[in-house]
């Protein structure tokens, strides 16, 4: 499978969106995206990372798999040409446009535990993406639980693999208005945390809003 790392713009116009929602800094979004629909995520102000997961809508246990997705395309980065697949190999989402070209598959979601290890014990009570994920799935109690919070995609995030095999959270490169689009290949549950992190540059140390748009076929 060939992955393009060129910026690819969408032919869609936001005036044609059937639904739009602003995700404030530090909050989340969890809603279905039905087969044939397209989800656009826009980095409204620039340099604002967000954490992203997806599930088979009709079988939530079959969640996004970073391992399956990376192995299938033989590349740790995702862009236009990538299909996000589940643990069972089911195709959920295909990336059809990307004007940022800086998404990460390995860095994971911020959590109070990792914050304290990385940035000190005083960060223990700061809000994290894991908090947001937990709040979102609590709205679907009985269908989703902690075990479903698996390694995620970091959208608009620059976390590079360095020559010594370590990782570093770098300043983002997404400009205001950058966006990425996912077309649903099957009915999918989308889970997003608009990252509240203020201890590394993934949100420019000052988290801002994102906006989502949904388009029908
Ligand atoms: Zn985060």
UniProtKB/TrEMBL annotation:
InterPro entries: DUF1989. Pfam families: DUF1989. It comes from the Bacteria. Residues 21-188 form the DUF1989 domain. PANTHER family: RE64534P (PTHR31527:SF0). This is DUF1989 domain-containing protein. It comes from Treponema ruminis.
């Amino acid at each position: 499978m060939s992955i393009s790392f060129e910026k690819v713009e969408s032919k869609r116009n936001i005036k044609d969106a059937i639904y739009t929602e602003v995700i404030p800094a530090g909050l989340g979004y969890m809603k279905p995206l039905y087969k044939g629909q397209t989800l656009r995520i826009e980095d409204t102000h620039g340099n604002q990372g967000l954490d992203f997961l997806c599930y088979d809508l009709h079988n939530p246990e079959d969640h996004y798999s970073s391992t399956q997705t990376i192995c299938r395309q033989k590349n740790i980065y995702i862009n236009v040409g990538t299909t996000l697949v589940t643990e069972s190999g089911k195709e959920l989402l295909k990336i059809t446009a990307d004007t940022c070209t800086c998404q990460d598959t390995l860095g994971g979601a911020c959590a109070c535990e990792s914050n304290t290890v990385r940035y000190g014990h005083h960060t223990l009570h700061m809000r994290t993406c894991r908090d947001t994920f937990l709040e979102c799935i609590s709205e679907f109690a009985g269908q989703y639980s902690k075990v479903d919070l698996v390694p995620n995609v970091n959208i608009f995030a620059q976390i590079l693999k360095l020559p010594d095999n370590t990782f570093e959270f770098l300043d983002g490169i997404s400009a205001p208005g950058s966006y990425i689009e996912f077309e649903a290949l099957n009915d999918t549950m989308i889970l997003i945390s608009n990252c509240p992190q203020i201890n590394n540059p993934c949100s420019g140390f000052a988290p801002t809003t994102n906006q989502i748009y949904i388009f029908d076929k």
